[in-house]
Amino acid sequence: MVVWYRTYESQCGVSDASSTTSSKTFVACKVCGDKASGYHYGVTSCEGCKGFFRRSIQKQIEYRCLRDGKCLVIRLNRNRCQYCRFKKCLAVGMSRDSVRYGRVPKKSREAGACAEEMNVCVNSTTPTPVSQLSSSTNSSSNQSSCGGGGVGGTPTPPSMPVISASNSNNNNNNNSISNNNNNNNNGNSTGLSLEPAMTNCAEISTSTAAIVGTILPDSMTFSPPELSIYDIIQCVAQAHRGHCTYTTELVKELNRVSLLSLFRQLIYQSLDTVEDQRVWLWQQYALRMTPSVQRIVEFAKRVPGFGEFLQDDQLILIKLGFFDVWLSHAAKAATEHALTFDDGVYVSRQQLEVIYDVDYANALFSFVSGLNACGLSDTEIGLYSALILLSDRPGLTETKLILRTRECIAEALRVQITRSRSNGAAVGSSAAAALQIMPALEAKIHELRMLGDKHFAHLEWFRQNWSSIRLPPLFAEIFDVPKCEEDLQ
């Protein structure tokens, strides 16, 4: 079997090509994840980031980013976008005023090395807080990219953020970061309208092909064989946290409210038949699912290796895998009696039985219960989502390339599960736990595929009666529901 990745030297350490020291003492740079050389400017960081920060504040350089300040900063691409790298330095706490005197005893340093690296591996993937941006930015656009960006001297378009190193002496909350883009980014690449009213055919410009059409330039430009397991885990985890609205933290903050409680008067006054109620419930169901389409597209673009697939293959993977990925995310907020959307509105089991049927509702809640029983963390859910996304689908061309990429993601998930369950446990027992969970998760993917296929089949009635219903255009596009006469040709 061809090895497409570099594995960890231990459960808590990451091997590094330039390092000959034991993984026991490996401490990651909080900026880029490379091996830290010490405590510089108030933060555990590597020599590269230390020097970069020093040069930035000494020369008071003004950086620019071509991607609205959303570039991912990791060891492999930290030099691509100086704006995002400097912003990350400030975000993790670097400051010229933060000078540490004295040395850390070796014993204390080694004792905290494993915990420090674990913390950086997972927590450094948290997106930059919106509060650091001076202009308003849509919450779903507060994301990270694995691509590069511009540097100083590049002409600044209207949407290009600028960061100056001249004010970096202040605390992070006072960083001088500005964004010249005053436009709302909400749906700018999709044209998505969440209004339930049907739009005229000529006004519908949204299509899945249009969304995926920009994937190749924005996606990862390096493939899994060039990445270590650590890099894959970090990149996918950051993409998941930046684009998923069902993370543990966000789910805890949900204020749950019943769908019927929002529209009770409408339900009782306007919907006379069960069929009318079914159509209305489908419309509400689709309305709240649709915003996740763009988020999952953005997540897919940041999965290592996805950008190397043929564009037609990317389109197939997203269209046929969207519902599967979405349900794996939404399971986090689901209970045995209700499925909750990311806005807190939930549909009950009884309502899902009306939307689908009793058997499908039972199968859906069975999947949700089984997945939640695995106790996956946000990072593991992100890797699992990537695994689901890269499943074999009919119509794919480069199946071998996709399979190799999927194997890398699967190994990253196995390593992450082993590491997360190694705290206080023997290495053998944590590895055994991973061996037990992985087959269960693979089985869940087959279960999920069946749910996705049946979900698609349940929409057949809407395909036959498209002219008399109102579904969000992007939802209709993903699930091949005609929106106008041209779609039938």
TrEMBL record:
Residues 246-481 form the NR LBD domain. It is found in: Nucleus. It comes from the Eukaryota. CDD domains: NR_DBD_DmE78_like (cd07165). GO terms for molecular function: nuclear receptor activity; sequence-specific DNA binding; zinc ion binding. Keywords: DNA-binding, Metal-binding, Nucleus, Receptor, Transcription, Transcription regulation, Zinc, Zinc-finger. SUPFAM superfamilies: Glucocorticoid receptor-like (DNA-binding domain) (SSF57716), Nuclear receptor ligand-binding domain (SSF48508). Residues 26-101 form the Nuclear receptor domain. It holds the Pfam family Hormone_recep. Residues 125-194 are annotated as: Disordered. GO terms for cellular component: nucleus. Residues 128-145, 166-189 have a biased composition (Low complexity). Belongs to the nuclear hormone receptor family. NR1 subfamily. This is Ecdysone-inducible protein E78A. It comes from Culex quinquefasciatus (Southern house mosquito). The lineage of its organism: Eukaryota, Metazoa, Ecdysozoa, Arthropoda, Hexapoda. The gene is 6050155.
